[in-house]
Amino acid sequence: MESSWMESSWLETHWARPLYLTLVFCLALGLLQAIKLYLQRQRLLRDLRLFPSPPTHWLYGHSKLFKDGKMEILEKIVEKYPCAFPRWIGPFQAFLYIYDPDYAKTFLSRTGKKRDDSQGPNPPRSDMTQPTDPKSNFLYKFMTASTGKGLVNLSGPKWSQHRRLLTPGFHFNTLKSFVEVMAQSVNIMLNKWEKICGSQNTLLDIYEHIDLMTLDVLMKCIFSWETNCQTDSSHDNYVKATSEGSNIVMQRVFNYFYHYDLIFKLSPLGHRLREVNKILHRHTDKIVKNRRNSLKDENKQTNTQKRKYRDFLDIVLSAQAENDSFTDADLWSEVNTFMLAGHDSVSAGISWLLYHLALYPEHQEKCREEIRAILGDGSSITWDQLSEMSYTTMCIKESLRLAPPAVSISRQLSKPITFPDGRSLPAGMTVVLSIWGLHHNPAVWENPQVFDPLRFSQECNKRHSHAYLPFSSGPRNCIGQNFAIAEIKVIVALILLRFQMRVEPTKPVVFVPYVFIKPKKGIYLHLKKLP
C-alpha cells in the first residue's frame, strides 16, 4: 500500500509541475497581451485627442451606433463634427474618418518617388508617381481571400507595375468600340422588360435586372465572352455571391473580434465566406481557362486578332507573356478584381441614377428630351453622341454625388500627416476618406440632400477640386472611370427612350454600405413602355 501511495504521489508531482509551468506561461502571455492592448488603446487616445467623436461604448466602440448601416447616422455626425471624427471599432482599434475637401486633398495628394527609371525621362503621367500611403490593413486585407492582390489592394512598386500594364485596356480608342456592345446588352434587358410589362404599368425590382445586364456588358467588353447571363439562370449564383461576399467583408471590418483570423475562420461568417469564394473563384477560373483554350486554337486566335480592339484579358495575358514578374497569381487577381469591382460599382451607379430619375420625373423628362434630340429612336448610338448629353451627364454626376458606389477609401499612414487646420496624426494610423460624408457635407454642398443636377452646370464650376470624388483622386484614382461613365450613359439613354419610370411610395429604398453601396431590399420602380 505504501509503495502504491508513493508511486501515485510521484506521478502527481511529476505531472503537476509541467501543468503549473504551462499555466504560468499562459497567464504571462495573457498579461503581456493585455498590457499590449492597453498601451495600444492609450496610444490611440493620445493620437486622436484633437478629434472629438460621438460617445463610445467601452467594449463595442461605435458599433452599435452604426449597427443598422443607416447612412443618415453618418450624415448627422458629419454635420456635428467638422472635418473629421474617430470611429472606434471595439476598445482597441479606431479609424479617423475625414469628409472635408481640404482634408481630402492633403490626404490624397501624398505621393512618393518616381516609380523607377525604366520608363525613360518622360514616363506616362499615370506612372510618374506612386502613393505614399499603402492601402489599409483592414478592408483591403480582408478582401484578399476573395479578390487576391490586384490593383484595388496592391501598394508600392508592384501596384505601379500593374497600373502601367493595365492602363491601355481603358484607352479612349478601346472604349469607343465598346459602345455598340454595351447597347446590345442593354437592349436584351429592355426586350425582357417589354415582355414582362406589355402595355401595362408594372412594378418591377430593377436592381436584379441591372445587375445581370452590367455583368453581361463586363463579360463582353472586358473579356469578349458571350455568356447569355441575362437569359441563362446559371449565373444567378455568381451575382448573389458577389453581394453576399461584400456584405460579409464589411461585417468583418466593423467587428473588432473578427479582425483576428482564427476567430473569423471558426465563425459561421468565416465558413460562409469560404463557400462564397469558391463560387467566385470558379467563375474567374472559367474566364481565364476559356481564353487560354481559345488561344490554343489557331482559328480562334485568328478571330481574336481580327477583333477591332484588344480587350482587358488580351492585355493581361500579353503582360504575363512579356513580363516574367507578372505571375499566374497576378493574372488571377486582376481578373477577379475587375470582375468584382467593375461589375458591382457600375451596377450600383446606374441603379441609383434610375431611382433618382424616377423620384424626380421633371429631370427624367428633360433627359429624355435631350436624348431623343441626339439619338432619335435609339436604333444606333455612338461614342461621339455620348459627349453631347450635357443635361444627362449633370444628372449622372448628381446621382453619383448623392449615392457614390464606393462609400469610402482607406489608407494606413506611412508617415505623419498634418491637415490644413494644424491637427496632425502620426504614422501607422488608418485614415478613412468617407466619400459619402464628403458628398453630403452641408459645409461643402448647399442643401446636400436635394437632387439638383445644376450643381454641375458650367455656371457652377467653382467647387473645391476635392469636393466631388466618386472615383477618388490622385495616383490611385479609378482606372475604369471612363468605362463606367460611358456605360452609364449608354444604359440610361436607351432605357429612357423606351420606358417611363416612377417610384413606388410603399417600397422606399434603403442604402446598405457593403464594399459598394447597395439597396437592402431591391429598387422597385413602376415601368411603363413608351409609345
Largest sheet: 4 strands, mixed
Query: How many separate domains make up the residues?
Result: 2
CATH topology of the largest domain: Cytochrome p450
Which regions contain 5 or more consecutive residues with pLDDT less than 50?
114-128
In short:
By secondary structure, this protein is α+β, with helices and mostly antiparallel strands. The chain has two domains: 47 residues; 459 residues, Cytochrome P450 (Cytochrome p450, Orthogonal Bundle), CATH 1.10.630.10. Helix content is 54%, strand content 10%.
List strands and helices in order, with pairings:
Layout: H1 2-47, H2 71-80, E1 84-88, E2 94-98, H3 101-108, E3 111-114, E4 129-131, H4 139-147, H5 156-166, H6 172-176, H7 178-197, E5 202-205, H8 206-223, H9 236-253, H10 261-266, H11 268-296, H12 298-306, H13 312-322, H14 328-359, H15 361-375, H16 383-386, H17 390-402, E6 408-412, E7 417-418, E8 424-425, E9 430-434, H18 435-439, H19 481-498, E10 499-503, E11 511-513, E12 517-519, E13 524-529
Parallel strand pairs: 2-9
Antiparallel strand pairs: 1-2, 3-4, 5-13, 6-9, 7-8, 10-13, 11-12
What does this 3D model show about the protein?
- The protein is α+β, with helices and mostly antiparallel strands and 531 residues long.
- It has 2 domains: 1-47; 71-529, Cytochrome P450 (Cytochrome p450, Orthogonal Bundle), CATH 1.10.630.
- It has helices spanning 2-47, 71-80, 101-108, 139-147, 156-166, 172-176, 178-197, 206-223, 236-253, 261-266, 268-296, 298-306, 312-322, 328-359, 361-375, 383-386, 390-402, 435-439, 481-498, and strands spanning 84-88, 94-98, 111-114, 129-131, 202-205, 408-412, 417-418, 424-425, 430-434, 499-503, 511-513, 517-519, 524-529.
- The chain has a 4-stranded mixed sheet.
- It starts with a helix and ends with a strand.
